[in-house]
Amino acid sequence: MRIFVTGGSGFLGQRLIRRLTEEGHQVTALSRTTDSDTRLASLGATPVRGSLSDIPRWEKALDRQDILVHAAAPIDVWGRWRTFRHDILEASLQLYQFACDRRVKRFIYLSSESVLQDSRPLLDIDESTPYPLEPNSLYGKAKKLAEQSLLSHAGPTTLIILRPTFIWGAGESQLDTLLEKVRKGQFVWVDHGHAPMEHVHVDNVVEAIRLAMNRGLHKGIYFVTDDQPSTAREFLGALMEAHGLTPPEASLPAALVKPLAPLVESLWRLLALQSTPPLSRFQLDFIALPRRYRLDRIRRDLGYQPVRRLDEGLAEIRASRPLA
C-alpha cells in the first residue's frame, strides 16, 4: 500500500516507517529539515519537505495515497494555547480535509489518553467515557477538540482514532526530564507511587496502526496499551532501573501536592514566565492519576494483541545503554 506518515522523524514514526518498509509498503513522510530527509530516506521512506504550518503547499503529495497516518504533534508539558491549537487542532482538521479531497482511503489519527484526564480517576473505563469539560493540560485540550472536530466531519475518508497511553521503549526521550530529576535526587513519588497507570511500548503502537490500516470502524476510537497492569512505582521504577538508576524512596501525599499544582500554574501564567513550571497538573497526574482502560473494543474491531511485553522492552533499554 501507499502510506503517508506525519511525525515520521519522531520516536514512534521511525519505528513505524521501518516496519512498513520492511513489509514492502511504499512510504512517503513529511520532513521539516535536511537531517530529517536523510533519516527518513535511510528508513526507506520518500521525504516530502513541509510542516503542519504550510499544509496547502505540500498537500498534493497526498494524491494516490491509500492511508495517511497522522502522528505529528507537540507533546509538551507547557506552552501557549495558540501553539497547541494550531499544531494539533487546526492542523489535524485541515489535514483530514485534504485527505478527503485527495481521496485518501483511510486516515489514522494518533490521539492520546490525555483527552480524558482532568484529575478524576479513570479506572475500568472504555472509549464511551464522556470527555471532561476541561482536560488538565493544553495538550489534552487540543487533542480533545481535534477528536471532536474530526468526528463531526462528514468527509468520505475512513477515520480511525487511536489513543495510545504513555509510549515508551529504547530511544524514547519524553522521560529524560524525569530521569534527570532522579539523578539529581529531585524526584518524589506521590502516595508512594501506588496509583495504577497505563503504558504502551512503541512496538505495540506500531502494531495497532498496522491493524488499523485494514480494520476498524469509521470514526472508531481505540485505546492502545500494553495490557499489563502495573502501578506508577512498578512501571516507572522498572524504567529507572533499566536506565541504570536506583528508584527513590521519597514520597509526598497526594492531598498535599495536588492543590499546589494549579497554584504553580497560575503563578507562571501571571508572571508570563517562559520556562516550564516545576509542578503542573499534567506532570503530577502522569505519576498520580489512577487509570486503567478496557481493551474490549480494540480487540474486537482490530484484533489487537500486544506484540511486545514489558520485560522484553526493558531488556531492550538495558541493552541500548552505553557501556560505562
UniProtKB/TrEMBL annotation:
Pfam families in the cross-refs: Epimerase (PF01370)
InterPro entries in the cross-refs: Epimerase_deHydtase (IPR001509), NAD(P)-bd_dom_sf (IPR036291), NAD(P)-dependent_oxidoreduct (IPR051783)
Domain NAD-dependent epimerase/dehydratase: 3-222
Coiled coil: none
Recorded GO MF terms: aldehyde dehydrogenase (NAD+) activity
Any single GO CC term annotated in Swiss-Prot or TrEMBL for this entry: cytoplasm
Protein name: NAD-dependent epimerase/dehydratase domain-containing protein
Lineage of producing organism: Bacteria, Pseudomonadati, Pseudomonadota, Gammaproteobacteria, Moraxellales
